[in-house]
Amino acid sequence: MLSGIQPTAGSFHLGNYLGAVRQWVALQETHDAFYMVVDLHAITVPQDPAELRANTRLAVAQLLAAGLDPDRCTLFVQSHVPEHAQLAWVMNCLTGFGEASRMTQFKDKSARQGADRASVGLFTYPVLQVADILLYQADEVPVGEDQRQHIELTRDLAERFNGRFGETFRTPEAYILKETAKIYDLQDPTVKMSKSASSPKGLINLLDEPKATAKKVRSAVTDTDTVIRYDVVEKPGVSNLLTVYSTLTGADIPALEEKYDGKGYGALKTDLAEVMVEFVTPFRERTQQYLDDPETLDSVLAKGAEKARAVAAETLSRAYDRVGFLPAK
Ligand code: AQP
After folding, report:
1. Can you tell me which atom of ligand 1 is nearest the CA of 6?
2. Does 192 participate in catalysis according to the annotation?
3. At what angle do helices 104-113 and 120-135 cross, to 10 degrees?
4. How far apart, in Å, do the first and last CA atoms of the chain sit?
5. Predicted TM-score (pTM) of this structure
6. What pLDDT, in 10s, does the model give residues 233-261?
C-alpha cells in the first residue's frame, strides 16, 4: 500500500482528509503501508523554499495528528528517498508524449497557470507518481477519485515495462471508497473541493479557526427545496453535507435522512457545524503538539526514510538491471 500527499498549501482540506488520509489511518492496521509527503511534486508549481520546508513539517505533523503511527506504517518525505526521481526518469522514457498530454489534472492545472508558464515538471508529474507507486511494489493505492487516471497510467506503464524487460513491477489497483471518493466544494457542490480551485468559502481547511469552519458549514450552498435527501443529481449540496456528516460520525445516511425529516436545512447545517468543530479542535491541537516537538518529528522521518529506502533501492536496482544499465562497481 502506498500513497502520498502534497505539502503545498499548509493545511489539509476536508477532501484530502475524507478522500485519502482517513483511509490511510485505517489501512495501516491491515497492510504494509508506505505514506509520504510528496515534496518533489510540490515544486511542479512555484514554491517559496522556506514555506515549502515549513509546510512539509506541517504535513507530517497533520498526518501524525490524523492517526498515522510510525510503528504501524512507514512515514517519510519523498525527497529523502532519491530513488523516486531515479525511477521516474526511466518511466519518463517509456511514456508517450500524447499519453502524458491526456492527463486531465495536467490539462486543468496548466490551463489555470497559463500553458506557457506551466513547467515540464508539472507535465511529467503523473510519471513521477508512477515511480512513487512502483518502487514499493504496491498492490493498492488509497486516493480520491481525481487520481484514478494516474493509477491507470501506473498500471499501463508497469505492464509496458514488464512486457519489454521482463516481470519487474506489480500492477497496482486504485483503492477508492465510493462514499468519500469526491468531497465537493461547499459553495459549488458540483465541483470537487480543491485547494487551488475552490473559493475560500467553499474550502474547509482543517487548521482554520473552528469558528470560521462552523460558519462555512452554516453558509454552505444547498438548494431551494427544504427536503433532506441524499440525491447527488438533484441535491448535490445536501448530499455532500450528508456524506461529510455520515463519515465523521459513523451514522449512516438513511438514519440521518430520518433524523432530519421535516427539520429543514438550518438544523442539519447547525449540527454538522458542531460535528466539524468537535473534529477539527483536537486535530489542530495534536498538530501543534507535533510541531512543538521537532526532535520527535525528525526522528520519525529519519526512521521512515531508512525503511522506505531499503525497499525502494532494491526495486530500483532490479529495474536498472532490466533496462540494461551497467552495474556500478
Ligand atoms: N475533494 C476531494 N475529495 C476526495 N479526495 C480528495 N483529494 C483531494 N481533493 C479531494 C485526495 O487527497 C489526496 C491528496 O491530494 P493532493 O496531494 O493532490 O492534495 P492537494 O493538492 O492538496 O489536493 P487538491 O485540493 O486536489 O489540490 P489541487 O486541486 O490543487 O490539485 C489525493 O489522494 C486526492 O485524491
Report:
1. 17
2. yes
3. 150
4. 33
5. 0.95
6. 999 999 999 999 999 999 999 999 999 99
